[in-house]
Amino acid sequence: MSGEINNKPQRSRRNVSPRAAIKQGDKKGDVSQKKSLPAPLNQLPLEKKTAKVIPIRMRVGLNEARPTFVPDLGEPLFTTDDRRFWVGDGVTPGGIPVSVSQWPIEDVSDLQHLEDAEIGDFAFYRDRTRCFMLVNPPPSSKVAWMELQVEPLVSDDERKARRYLNAVQEFLLDVLLEERFISNDEDRLLPKKTTDGKIAKLMHDRRALNTYLADTSEEKQFPELQFTSYSKL
What we know:
Elements: H1 18-27, E1 59-61, E2 76-79, E3 84-87, E4 96-97, E5 102-105, E6 122-125, E7 131-136, E8 144-148, H2 156-181, H3 192-214
Parallel strand pairs: 1-2, 5-6
Antiparallel strand pairs: 2-3, 3-4, 6-7, 7-8
């Protein structure tokens, strides 16, 4: 009957899940439930990121004016006449040098004339045979330079070749001394035939290693050696 009252309990939309409420709203033409849910992340408007420029104050001037004030802790300085960077520690007048200079010299006596050198600077012979580092700069009464050992840059193969060559020479010297003072074959540690064969291999390797080290070309290859027990020498 049209006049009958529907006693079926109506389910409150407050108690339904958001997804069920959305479906119910779609069926009834009500989309208000959708507005309460956040949009997917890929649909959210992205904020534009702009690069931030942080200015850093740097004092620039001549080196003669630098010691007249004490820069703040971490304050950078640049001297235009000698092209050096300095940084303040809040205590030292003129700051502390953070860059080094190189001073070519002709003789060790030239070190005493490098009055503008700062701690950590290098002085070197023009042929690169000797190198010094300033460890106690002027105006100290005890200016001190520390000499550094200069070694040429060599490859691993060249370093190995020199090690093998030294071992060969030491072993050959021992054999020659042994042959010089042995009175009979009973005193030999190894038979003479074995010793002669080893000497022949070492003499071949000695020539090959010397030729390899004398070669200055970049295409040189490590030589094939006849003696295979250099680790035992």
